[in-house]
Amino acid sequence: MRSLQEIDWPSLTRGKQFYPSPAAWQAELLYFLFIDRFSDSKEYGGFGDMNGAIVAGPTGERTTSLFSEEEHAWQADRQSWFEAGKTWCGGTLTGLQDKLGYLQRLGVTALWLSPVLKQVTGSHDYHGYGVQNFLEVDPHFGTREDLKNLVARAHEAGIRVILDIILNHSGDVFAYQGNYRYYYHAGQEWPVAGFRTHSEDDGTLPFAPIDRDAYPQAWPDGAVWPLEFQLHDAWTRQGEIRSWDSFPEYLDGDFLSLKDINHGTGPKDPAMSWDILKSIRQFRTAPALANLAEIYKFWIAFADLDGFRIDTVKHMEPGAVRYFSNVIHEFAQSLGKENFYLIGEVTGGRKHAVNMVNTTGIDAALGINDIQDKLEFLAKGQRSPGNPDTDQQEGYFDLFRNSLLDNKHTHQWYSGHVVTLFDDHDQVGVKHKFRFCGQQPNSYQMLPIALALNLLTAGIPCLYYGTEQAFNGADQRTEDDGYSDVFLRECMFGGSFGSLQSSGHHFFNEEHTIYRLIHALSRLRREHITLRRGRQYLRQVSGTGTEDDFHFPQPIGGKLRWIVAWSRVFAGHEYLCAVNTDPTQSLTVWITVDHCINQAGAKMTCLLSTDPSDLGMTVDIEERNGSAVCLTIPPAGVVVLHQTLPI
């Protein structure tokens, strides 16, 4: 399709049964992946098909064997390996479909896919954020039918599909005059040479609706499509952003070489940049924004998608986000998707994220208050978990309490509106980037703690691909920090850019210790609604059990080598979760539990422990600090208890 006018809406929707939305997204476990880095369907050994049967090989098509750390780690030439990671590696939609059984058994219930739309020809935009054709799948990944088939097979496996989408910008589809880099300056519109035929072309196509007979090179790989975006007023044309926090520069400037789409007009007075409601009231929608809404309505209907993750919300007018949210929600509801989820990448602190969710109509926020940093470094014993005795928002657990400060009537509000994760694909603001396991040699030992915090605390948990195989990508350079995010994007299927500086061997190992732990955590979460929906309380702990010795754990000298415990409480049930941030020794402590639910003399039973010998053990509830239990937590370990119910 070259134009939005070619969309046949009746054939897309008439008589079609669409996959329903979940009742509550906090019950889901999300899994984010780069399609280019996940699977090329050539792997064998170590993983099963949808029925659990091990996929055998080698065969004519399956030629990639399972990775062995002893044999394959650190064997690739580092510079060649790094260069391979800067461009397309070969993952496909059919390869992803081939791994749905692996993901289902891991416990994943919703896939968050990197953008799939066609990229600028000749670019290295394997990540998908440089769109050239908004109505087509990039041929590196496959076809539109491949996307539709993937979603259908995922739904059969009980897995929903969220697509990462871009509203703020396109790829580098046109050149400014002289093919020079122009920079934002006081709202100045800069002259444009023309649309590009391919990456780095001088702009040899007219900057106007293109006559394909006169310029046959424009279709399908040149300019931008659909043709509605070939109008000059579809673009702000104000050059690259240099001051990323300067209003309105961060709204109207180009995102580096990616060209900013004109969504409409709003107030430009920097003194009013804080007033989201005024921005929304005064916003006037431009045709390009309405066209973007039509495009993404098409993809919902065509592929039966379940949600969108909206990239770079910070760089969009709040009024534009609100318009898009309303249009998409109404359309999805017309298809029977009552809870089609819109997750926005929102930066700028907790209160700003809450305001954006409340006022624009998106359903949840990513990037709220440095969740990744607080979660990761709490697990590594380098951050406070928070302190309910103060109003400071210093720790991970502080993010989810006292929502009255944000005008929410219940402290459960955050559970359904904040996505929690730690490993991340770009780590904005960090120069030399690393995955959780890539920071230092003992990071791997602390990974179970991070996973317990991620899956067993409030919010919508999201895993980053490769975490289940303890990927340890890290930029170990000290001078240059260019392409640092490449180190976070290793190939699950091996290829020339496998994790642990390897090549030619895949990582779909269903027997990996971390894979099995996530399987156990996700199953526990799935079987116990309290761990998905319950209220959350950071608990006081004590080394002695005496009344004046119970405290919320805090770092000493910048290090926290102690027990962090929290409860999830729902409908009269309490689940106690505890982790030990000391990687060298077991710790025995007293942990406070809810006195009304757990009276002295009752017992709690161990449902999960990183020490298998603890499973099924019971502990007595004693009258200490109200009510408390005495627990021993293994080094860098995790334990989950539930009150023992009478028979």
Explain what this protein looks like in three dimensions.
- This protein has 647 residues and is of the alpha/beta class.
- It has three domains: 4-165 and 339-354 and 365-523, TIM Barrel (Alpha-Beta Barrel); 168-262, no CATH class; 534-643, Sandwich (Immunoglobulin-like), CATH 2.60.40.
- Helices cover 22% and strands 17% of the residues.
- The chain is built from 15 helices and 25 strands.
- It has helices spanning 9-13, 69-72, 78-84, 93-98, 100-106, 144-156, 249-252, 276-282, 287-303, 318-334, 350-360, 371-379, 443-456, 513-527, 530-533, and strands at residues 30-33, 65-66, 110-113, 117-119, 131-137, 160-165, 174-176, 192-195, 264-265, 284-285, 307-310, 341-345, 364-366, 419-420, 460-464, 505-506, 535-539, 541-542, 563-570, 573-580, 587-593, 603-609, 618-622, 627-633, 638-643.
- Strands 17-19-20-25-22-23-24-21-18 form a nine-stranded antiparallel sheet.
- Strand 23 and strand 24 form a beta hairpin.
- Helix 8 crosses helix 10, helix 9 (287-303) packs parallel to helix 10 and helix 13 (443-456) runs parallel beside helix 14 (513-527).
- It starts with 8 loop residues before the first helix and ends with a strand.
Can you describe this structure in just a few lines?
This protein is α/β, with parallel strands linked by helices and 647 residues long. The protein contains 15 helices and 25 strands.
Topology:
Layout lengths: L8 H5 L16 E4 L31 E2 L2 H4 L5 H7 L8 H6 L1 H7 L3 E4 L3 E3 L11 E7 L6 H13 L3 E6 L8 E3 L15 E4 L53 H4 L11 E2 L10 H7 L1 E2 L1 H17 L3 E4 L7 H17 L6 E5 L4 H11 L3 E3 L4 H9 L39 E2 L22 H14 L3 E5 L40 E2 L6 H15 L2 H4 L1 E5 L1 E2 L20 E8 L2 E8 L6 E7 L9 E7 L8 E5 L4 E7 L4 E6 L4
Parallel strand pairs: 1-3, 1-15, 2-16, 3-6, 6-11, 11-12, 12-13, 14-15
Antiparallel strand pairs: 4-5, 7-8, 9-10, 17-19, 18-21, 19-20, 20-25, 21-24, 22-23, 22-25, 23-24
